[in-house]
Amino acid sequence: MVPCPSALRGRPAAARLTVFLIPCLALLPALHPSGQPTRAAMLLEKVIESITVDELIELMEGEGYAVETHKLGFLQWKIEGFRCQLFIADDAEALQFHVSFGDGNATLQKVNDWNATKRFSRTYLDDEGDPHLELDLDLAGGVTEARIKDYLRTCRVSFGAWCGEVVE
């Protein structure tokens, strides 16, 4: 219940504003009718500027991904039965997804076609002609947990498409 205006007289402006805004915030729905978070809900979400191996494992397992720590410290992520790697930068402010194959039918033309038509990933052939796929996520300045989850989905979807368009 909002106090009547006479009860607010003499109070500091911040107190008057708080008494008014708190009930208004309760009226804001957390989700838009489309099911997506509203702008107000997103502003309240925690900002992540760095991430540890344990935090990333917890987030990924919460999404149902099969992931484990490799003895060299990076994360090994199984996608469709294939081992992919997730590297966390030394300063913990960036993630990199990486996968490569020692065989397949990748050609320079397929690699160039991929890079010309995809925005969030890159592929290349190493010195031995093996194809590699990489996707980066910069955490500097802050991202939300939802953004990291979206990055992981993008990695998974890109991997499937890359296998079909570049490797096979």
Q: In words, what does this structure look like?
A:
Residues 17-28 have low confidence and may be disordered. The chain has 168 residues and is an alpha+beta fold. The chain has 2 domains: 5-44, no CATH class; 53-167, Yope Regulator, Chain: A, CATH 3.30.1460.10. The N and C termini lie far apart (65 Å). The chain is built from 6 helices and 6 strands, in the order H-H-H-H-E-E-E-E-H-E-E-H. A 6-stranded antiparallel β-sheet has the order 1-2-3-4-6-5. It is 40% helix and 21% strand.
- Structural class per helix/strand content? alpha+beta
N→C terminal distance: 65 Å
How would you characterize the largest beta sheet? 6 strands, antiparallel
Assign the CATH topology of the largest domain.
Yope Regulator, Chain: A
Oligomer: single chain
* Radius of gyration, in angstroms, nearest whole number: 23 Å
CATH architecture identity of the largest domain: 2-Layer Sandwich
Sheet with most strands: strand arrangement = 1-2-3-4-6-5
- What share of residues are in beta strands? 15-25%
- pLDDT < 50 runs, ≥5 residues: 17-28
Number of domains: 2
H/E element order:
HHHHEEEEHEEH
Fraction of helical residues: 40-55%
What is the CATH class name of the largest domain?
Alpha Beta
* DSSP, total strands: 6
Instruction: Give average pLDDT, whole number.
Output: 85
Number of helices: 6
Shape: elongated
